[in-house]
Task: structure prediction
Amino acid sequence: MSDSMNGTSQPVIRVDGVSRWFGSVVAVSDVTFDVSPGITGLLGPNGAGKTTLLRMMTGLAATSSGTVTVFGQPVRDNPPLYRRLGVMSEHETVYGFMKGREFVRMMGHLRGVEDLENAVDRAIALVDLAEVQHRPMDTYSRGMRQRMRLAATLVHDPEILILDEPLNGADPRQRVHFTRLLRQLAAAGRTIVLSSHILEEVEQLADTVLLIVNGKLAASGGFRAIRAALNERPYHVRVVCDSPRQLAAAVVELDSVDAVHVDPDGAIVILSRNVLALQIELPRLAQSASIRLRRVEPLDDSLESVFGYLVEQ
Amino acid sequence: MSPVYRLALRQLSSRWRLTIMAVLAAMPVIIAVLMLRSKEAPTVDEFESAILSAMLAGSIAPLVVLAIAAAAFANEVEDRTLANLTLAPIARWKIAVPKLLATITIAAPFIALSAFATSYVAFLGDSTATAAVTVSALVGVALYASAFVWLGLVSTQAIGIGLLYIVLWEGFFSGFVSGVRLLSIRHYAIAVMHGLDERRFAVHDHVSLAVAVTLSALVFAGFVVLSIRRLRRMDVP
Amino acid sequence: MTAQTITHDESPSARGGTVFDTGYRSYTGRREGRGRARRAIFKDGLRTALGFGRGGRAKVLPWLFIAVLSVIGLVFAIVAGAADRLGGPGTAERVNLPSHADYYGIASIIVFVFAAVVAPELLCPDRRNGTISLYLVRPLTGSDYVMSRWGAFLAVMLAALWLPQVILFFGLSAGDPAPVEYLRKHWLDIPRFLAAGAAMAAYATTLAMLVASFTTRRAYASVFLVGLFIITTPFTVGVADEIGGTAGQWISMFNLTNVPVHVNDVIFGDVSEVTEEAPARALGPAVLVAWYFVCTLVPAGLLWWRYRRLTP
Result:
């Protein structure tokens, strides 16, 4: 499931020219994008406006200008829409006095779930908390509370999931479990939007990335595509070989290469705008010069470097 | 029964809160007993103005209701759990009204019992007078509840504003300035009491029963509508 | 947009750690001690109580209270001035219009509500949000913290209680045809109202903070305090009247709203309207003042003790 065209159907969520300001502070500035089924990651530094944007997408907050539509309807002041929407906010407070199961059950009841008990069982099983469901939630650990909140978000089987920093404070095991769960849900055709400031999370999970910086949408799409779009920046490829300077001298003559650095530790870093061509030419060059290539790795084929570029601007 | 109503009932009835409400509600009863036993029993006027109006309707009832109503919404806003309710596919009135009803459900027994006992003791078992006082106390509770539930939704300083209202507006100004009485919940309740038992309370020139009831209904409905409207328009934390 | 070179020249597995000098500098200046910390908390308490730094809404309540208190003083001044103008100098005194001695009695309930609403802001949020631990890991003890907060609120109360009296004094002396003469005759009023104001401020502050130290929700502290003040008044009055005699006098001492007003009466040698009928008056000034100190120092001690035991 990637950012492919979804044919003739409307986007599930459409955010159109949305801005939000608080007095003289602009939190979100003229953001426009569509969200389609699959996992979309909202990425950005803290304070970038992710939470505000998510709250506007869920109708919890009003927009100062612009509209948010879900399934073609405005999301604000439209309670029936919440039947199809599941939202998990970043705040961890729960009704401490309630038992976990009671909480999930109440949320299911409020959302008009039929066959309530089975739905609750299923939701709690999904997050693997069946043993503790009859304990009050103020006895839970932080991770357990998060998972129970997730169960409450899933109990009515919504088509859209909007999750604000869902992995806050999750331990590695929970992370794995959660990732698997989300992929399962997305594979069944759901639309999932999650926000995070942790690159690895988004990199692993999201098909589409929306990069928010200072309230503006800095980039959107698959992160590789974003990287490719930043084509004024050359890729960095690090090569470890037997004779670095000799290779460097040869490599610098290639058209696809912009520059070469030689590191003190003997590796060379090649700056190139045409990695495809480099991939073909480099081994040929090495072979004809009888240089053994021990290691060839792209240094910035990661969301982190994309992030880094864009945030620094 | 509405899940919101049940949730609100649980949120509002912690043991501490209930104990303190009980203590507060017992005060007027004790005073009424004492007043009766004292050598110079007060006149109906004095009793009404000191105990029924000032104490019961003017301070104890609104304080009790404020403490509970604040927990209804203000605590949820502060704890950021309100979104659990607003993100449900139910009409906003199905959130506001159950919360209000739960507030009244918890506060009313204390105040009604207090009013009943106080007037029973003071008026030596006169059923009309007792009924009048009790009903008017309930009217007061309903009105204060509707106002303070709305206040809890609208402001994070709900308690401070509520207290100022109780002490300055109800306690101070409405005693002096007669125009203000038209905007004072305490006086609506007192007017209802007068209206229901004109024989005993007919000394003052308050509004008639019909007007008092109408105004009360309007004020109550007004605050309910305002609460619903606020739920629809606010940014839920 | 200039091109940037990313120097990812270390793969994590290859070599040991290196720290780049990206501008981090450790602090090499002077480190001040406990006194500085206490002053900082005091200053922060002042700002919190008056709503500074938290937007317009936070300023409404405290400044509204201060305004109401000042207006009352102003009204007294105006009314006295008018009376003097109409009936000749000294009329106000003769007719016994409210003046310095009466102010604190009349303003008492407002003062207590002020304390009930604002004082919990200084103590409750820190405990509720856990930020008190951040304070306690500094060179600061729990009692330092609470005493600084107490000091801050006391300062605000003093300002709120002295300002109206100052206004009143200026009003009275300016309204008098011979202001200097007025000053000479009435200068003793100044230390009197300063002392009475301080007494009321200390009392209200201490009680309010003690109650606030028992709960983490501001709302409950406020309602409890107001309830306490509003309810004990008629209750003790009723019981005292009923029982009468010496016992009644002692019970009347438990009328919490009157405690500082009795001290005010003692200082001015006059009787306020609110305490006119209090049986406790019969116990004499020494007892009343001593009781005031009990009612202020014991809660202060309790407050200090409660916070002393706190650890981060």
Chain A has a mean pLDDT of 86. The longest strand of chain A covers residues 25-35.
